Amino acid sequence: MNMMIKAYKRKFDVANGRIDLSHGAGGRAMGQLIEGIFHKAFDNDWLRAGNDQSAFSVPGGRMVMTTDGYVVSPPFFPGGNIGTLAVHGTINDIAMAGAVPLYLSASFIIEEGFPLVDLERIADSMGSASREAGVPIITGDTKVVERGKADGVFISTAGIGMVPDGLDLRSDAARPGDAVIISGSIGDHGVAVMSKRENLEFDTDIVSDSAALHGLVADMVAAGGAHIRLMRDPTRGGIAATLNEIASQSRVGFRIDEEAIPMKPEVAAACEFLGLDPLNVANEGKLVAVVAPEGADAVLAAIHTHPLGAEAALIGHVVADDNYFVQMLTSFGGGRIVDWLSGEQLPRIC
Amino acid sequence: MKYIDEYRDGSLAKDVARQITALADPARSYHFMEFCGGHTHAISRYGLEDLLPANVRMIHGPGCPVCVLPIGRIDAAIALAMRPEITLCTYGDLMRVPGSNGSSLLKAKAAGADIRMVYSTLDALQIGEAEPDREVVFFAIGFETTTPTTALALKAAIARGLGNFSIFCNHVLTPAAIQNILESPDVRKLGTIKIDGFIGPAHVSTVIGTEPYEFFAEEFRKPVVVAGFEPLDVIQAILMLVRQVSDGRHEVENQYIRAVTALGNEKAQAEVANFFELRESFEWRGLGEVPYGALRLRPQYAAYDAEKRFSMVTPAAKDNPACECGAILRGVKKPADCKLFGTVCTPDTPMGSCMVSSEGACAAHWAYGRFREKVRQVDARRAVA
User: Fold this and answer.
1) Are B39 and B287 in contact (CB under 8 A)?
2) Contact predicate A162/A99, CB 8 Å
3) Quick one: which of A66, A96, A85 has its CA closest to A214?
4) Chain B within 8 Å of A273 (Cβ-Cβ)?
5) Cis upstream peptide for A78 (omega within 30°)
6) CATH 3.90.650.10 spans which residues of chain A?
7) How far is CA A317 from CA A78, A101, A119, A296, in A?
8) pTM to 2 decimals?
9) What value does the mean pLDDT of chain B take?
10) Chain B neighbors of A327, CB-CB under 8 A
11) Residue range(s) of every CATH 3.40.50.11740 domain in chain B
12) Known InterPro entries for this protein (chain B) (predicted)?
């Protein structure tokens, strides 16, 4: 009898174990996984209650909610991993409304065979990222799919937050004359990930800029909230996609100055080598703010005093343009359009 | 960036532009074709045309290996990739190139074909070694610049006795295409082509040297300046062309002396010659059949030639008849002259060769140039108001 109990209680061996289908089957193995990795890593009162949902209190006012899926390959890269990205990305989506993020959820789709030690590393760093940000992960879900039906691990996060009274940032709010501010150097995340991509590996000191921006946003709102028209985090598609999105939603154009856009020399060099346009390369810890001209100096000064905004710069202005073009004065003195990327950005042949 | 920033000095470019303006005869116009998509990209990316006087215009040539790959070759690759035993390795920018009836390698992959995106020939070789039960075919494409790497992969495959690796060869040749632009039967149909000189691709000439253009400059009495891909390289090449035209010369000049010699890389040429021979004729998308415009594997390497090994057939497939790529690639028309441009034909839905790769003439005009006219119109309206 004792032998049977021993065999039934499988040891949860993180160091050597791998995800198998039983970890997603709703039985004891799944319980071990959730307790042994996720609850340990995210530890908080809501999770300890052990429900399939969490009840929580919110202050009165306008609420924001967002959800996002993370499928980055490879899952580990210089400066972060898929888990930190999932926490930062969702916090930032909330913060771009000027809101204070309150709670997150995390859903995992894990491929059979994924090493437990890697999952633990991802979960631990998610737990640290959410604690540092002060935004707890209060509910979650785990699914396991057969080998070959996923790429290691996919994470989906949702988040909610509250918008401060009197603040109403809208994507159609940009007006001619407004200033365009970027909070720091562009392209760091995309280049860091590409440097570790299979078959494309190259040595670089660049690390991902992945970071939670809600603290920076709070400082900006305090310094010039009434003057901030809108904010956006330029993730996939880079600042080119972000500016084009704003242009079409606000029915305006942009004129930006290439020389004013902060960029690390290593990022410029990697993009040059790969034939990529850094304006299309992803960022995970930067924001673009469109600010009324009378508030631009105050907002820029507030960004500069925050650790995540030391390299912030005013990169151009909103202009009236029926075509919604994003135009750029090149470093060479010519002009060009900055367009959406067509398809995926890929290194060129020659 | 060392060795990059030096070639992007805007003030120096303005000096060169002033020299071009001073030297160009205001009573005539100058039309120069940059053959290579890399030059087209640099011209558009840095807004170089804004620096040139109005009578000096650039014509964007056919120099993009992705753009000039005909539909039939894409169809043949898709048909091969759909075979269960085949793993087709391809460069990423080939994935979206349209074949017949809206097909593409990307869509074939989604339909279950084993198509893998690689960054080099050696990646494909490694897949062949790692998966001996698969038939690994490398979709080889590119001008003289990339042919030596295909030759080296073949050499390595033979040395390692790799029996499951083969090459679908689509390597094309630059001088033959330039010649075709000036003297094919289509040209006579299209009328006079205004080209006063060519900017030759530096990367190609690092391999083949400048010498292959000598015959061509002499025969057609058109100057050729082999130039690098940085904006200062390009604008200096334009100055050199204007100077040749003013002097009545038609010579091959080398702007890219930092890497190009008259004879090129003879070792690379020897490797290419070992494995490849000329095709009598090869279809270029937008240009039609180009005599001696491409390479194939020599008969003794038939076992590594995917076309022979798998009895591949290149189906006859036609471009959209309204597509003006042929005229655009020859400089007879501009991208915006084509009625498909910006309507049904955009980089997201490319119909013709010039729109396929980001370095194609129409794609470059779409991405960087199409706003110029509109901006001018808006500025003019504002000035009137």
Assistant:
1) no
2) yes
3) A96
4) no
5) no
6) 178-337
7) 33, 29, 44, 11
8) 0.83
9) 89
10) 371, 375
11) 29-323
12) Hyd_form_HypD, HypD_1, HypD_2_sf
Superfamily the domain B29-323 falls into: HypD, alpha/beta domain 2 (3.40.50.11740)
**Shortest Cα distance, chain A CAs vs residue B191, angstroms:** 32
Q: Please answer yes or no on whether B1 and A269 come within 8 Å at the CB atom.
A: yes
For residue A280, pLDDT over 90 is answered with yes
- Whether A331 has its CB under 8 Å from any CB of chain B: the answer is yes
Residue B330 structure tokens: 């020859």
CATH number of the domain at A18-163, out of 3.90.230.10, 1.10.10.10, 3.30.1330.10, 3.40.50.720?
3.30.1330.10
What is the DSSP code (8-state) at residue A263?
-
Contact B314, B76 (CB under 8 A): yes
CA B316 to CA B298: how far, in whole Å?
24
CB of B354 within 8 Å of a chain A CB? The answer is no
Across A184-206, average pLDDT: 85
Asked if B372 lies within 8 A of A335 by C-beta distance, the reply is yes
Residues comprising chain B, all counted: 385
Assess whether pLDDT exceeds 60 at residue A4: no
DSSP character at residue A339: P
Contacts of B18 in chain A (CB under 8 A): none
Look at the alpha carbons of B104, B106, B109, B114 in this order and tell me if their dihedral is positive or negative. Answer: positive
More confident of the two residues A301 and A27: A301
Three-state secondary-structure class, residue B22: helix
Which among B237, B222, B225 has a CA at the least distance from the CA of B43?
B237
Q: Looking at CA atoms only, how far is residue B118 from chain A in angstroms?
A: 7
Write down the ipTM of this complex. 0.74
DSSP-assigned beta bridge partners for residue B57: B31
| Contact status of A148 with chain B (Cβ, < 8 Å) | no
Specify whether the CB–CB gap between B273 and B294 falls below 8 A. Answer: no
Contact check, Cβ <8 Å, B93/A349: yes
B370 falls in which pLDDT band (50, 70, 90)? confident
CATH architecture of the domain formed by A178-337? Alpha-Beta Complex (3.90)
CB contact under 8 A, B93 and A346: yes
- Residue A335 contacts B where some CB pair is shorter than 8 Å: yes
pLDDT tens for each residue of B15-30: 999 999 999 999 999 9
Helix (H, G, I), strand (E, B) or coil at B62: strand
Strands (E), chain B: 30-36, 56-63, 86-91, 114-118, 135-142, 165-171, 197-201, 224-227, 252-254, 276-284, 288-297
Residue B212 belongs to what H/E stretch?
A: helix B212-220
